Amino acid sequence: MERYLYFADGNGANLTTEAYTAPASAIAGVVPESTTTTVIFFNKNVGIDNVETKDALTLTHDDTTNTTGHRVKDIARAVAEAANAGPHINGVVDVVDLDNNIFYGNLSFVTGVAVEFDVVALS
After folding, report:
1. End-to-end CA distance of the chain
2. Do 19 and 8 contact (CB within 8 A), yes or no?
3. 3-state secondary structure (DSSP) of residue 93
4. How far apart are the C-alpha atoms of 56 and 50, rounded to whole Å?
5. I need a labelling partner for 73 at 20 to 30 A (CA). Which of 31, 34, 83, 99 fits?
6. Tens place of pLDDT for every residue, the chain, 123 residues?
7. pTM of the model
8. How do 27-34 and 53-61 pair as beta strands?
9. How far apart are CA 40 and CA 76, in angstroms?
10. d(CA 59, CA 9)
11. What is the predicted pLDDT for the residue at 27?
């Protein structure tokens, strides 16, 4: 069974960019964007104009770069674990759900989720 990863930004999940669910198989990468943000990219299909795009979820978190290192490793590890969650998962894994204060693994340091659709692929 395909695993799906769920994210919600804490605003009720009733508008297009307030929640996001993607198949775990679509994970393209986890990249630090700044000292307090990390982006998770998800693959999309190539569009009509033959341009490959990805959806981007930007997670906001505390700045630990000068103490324990950037949070990108913690986030990547949790996303990988959620994508490979055990057999007792019902198909959808809450990774960061700020509406219900649910965090996968140790991701309770995440304070924001921003969804952006159809970002031009990284080269």
Report:
1. 31
2. yes
3. strand
4. 19
5. 99
6. 789 999 999 999 888 889 999 999 999 999 999 999 999 999 987 666 667 789 999 999 999 999 988 999 999 999 999 999 777 667 899 999 999 999 999 999 999 999 999 887 555
7. 0.89
8. unpaired
9. 8
10. 9
11. 95
Beta bridge partners of 54: 43, 119
Would you list the domain boundaries of the chain? 4-120
* Dihedral over Cα of 11, 14, 16, 20: its sign: positive
Sorted by sequence, the CB contacts under 8 Å of residue 90 that are 6+ apart come out as none
Predicted pLDDT at 115: 95
Q: Give backbone dihedrals phi and psi of 82, rounded to 5 degrees, phi first.
A: -65, -40
Nearest to 107 by CA among 119, 93, 117, 88: 93
Please return the burial class of 22, using the count of CB atoms within 10 Å of its CB with bins 0-12, 13-18 and 19+: buried
H-run or E-run covering 49: none
How many of the other CB atoms lie within 10 Å of CB of 60? 17
pLDDT recorded at residue 64: 94
